[in-house]
Write a structure and sequence with these properties.
Strand content: 15-25%
CATH architecture of the largest domain: 3-Layer(aba) Sandwich
Radius of gyration: 19 Å
Helix content: 40-55%
Distance between the termini: 67 Å
Number of helices: 9
Shape: globular
Structural class: alpha/beta
Oligomer: single chain
Order of helices and strands: EHEHEHEHEHEEEEHEHHEEH
CATH topology of the largest domain: Rossmann fold
Amino acid sequence: MPLEDRPSTGDSQAEPRATVMVVDDEAAVRRVLVMRLQLAGYRVICAEDGEEALTLFHQEQPDLIVLDVMLPKLDGFAVCRRLRAESCVPIIFLSALDAIAERVSGLDLGADDYLPKPFSPKELEARIATILRRVGRGSAAAEPREVPSGSGVLRVGDLVVDTNRRQVTRDGERIGLTYTEFSLLELLFREPGRVVPRAEILEQLWGYPPRRAADLRVVDVYVARLRGKLEPDPRNPELILTVRGTGYASQRMAELTLAASS
């Protein structure tokens, strides 16, 4: 492994809070990201191919993974699929493939975000910071995570949503959700009195406004994934409803809307 790709030990006086693993077969990309992310306060480790990424993940247990799609030995989609079978670690895809179908494929596998190449390192840093804040990690020294005001247990039909433990159960059986899926569920069901626009969901959960139609597809993919895990019949959803031309609403919002129009 080249010197610049070795794990950063960080400053002995300040223990880094979060570890970011960069997986890319281009040495120039790795070098730039190592430099930028270390300056931002992260501990950075690198892998050059998919197989090395899986080995390093099990050795280091990073807090977030920046994962290129086009990799030797095992591509990024295959790596993501294997990681999602055992872990909810946040994953941001990087790819020269900017087609909507490619982006949707990556998100369908469980990635938290997707950034097309060429990309702005500053934008990637912002997205990393947003995701790590959401999961209670950051770049500075560790601090106790504050529990948001109003946290507790939400009951939605036969679902129990524990916002403190970030867990969802049905009839005592836990339903596995990623950090982003849970955050989306919590956002929709904490505000049952209104429709949540897709652009607002994108800004609150991903930290950036929509710049093109493909950006909003991120929200649609995650709603579809939530429905697949929570709805008895995802094609005829009862918990998360689509409000055409606007966004999404929870079951309770649908009940309020129907009552008002009757």
